Amino acid sequence: MEKEDELQKLNGQVSAPRDGDVEDDDPLVLSSQALAALREFLADQNKTVASTPPASSVAGGEESDKVELVTEDWRLSQFWYEPETAETVADEVVTLSQRIPGCRVACIACPTLYVYLKKRDPSLQVQLLEYDMRFERYGKEFTFYDYNEPEDLPLQLKHCFHIIVADPPYLSRECLERVSQTILFLASPVDSLLLLLTGEVQREHAAELLGVRPCVFKPHHSSKLGNEFRLFISYDPGTRLGGLEEDS
Where in this protein does the record put region Disordered (predicted)? Predict the structure, then answer.
């Protein structure tokens, strides 16, 4: 998951969204390893963090198997994907984009995926919508985004994206509702495709709000979150991503 909010406790739960009066349906639960990493992170706040290379560096120059990312800011509910997860989702998006002339992709609150997409296909038109201003380094491909203001976005982004990948920062219905508003704002009115990465707890809400279904492939985070996460999609992938999960 990838907002402005101080982490109030080190008890295995991530704090509520910054508008305070909304509670998560299922608070994020961290494993003991993740808690230890969190304590180390908070102790090292004054140290210099690694920085992500500019988009031009990611897209060009010598190829490297390693993708460099900025350090997760746990206060912003940032939890980067494991490389296998990022590569799998990026490959799926690129595969879909090759079937759509002039395809434009929007990444809502998932900067990890943006970096992997630009590495996978530097020519792909990708817009990153993100709260963390560290990603402003991506220039015109960065748009500041606060899910509390779901449609406070440049009008030139309205209804012009063919593929949207969203990773809401919190596991609450309220957060998903607001991100859903953003998705509807961005989506092309014809044949747009959606990939939603969020917790299993959001299954019914995701189906109700966005008409998406889970695939067999399951995303994982480097921080080993205790909550089960899923990839929900709005289309039939065939055998890719393990196919759609059968109804039980």
Answer: 1-26
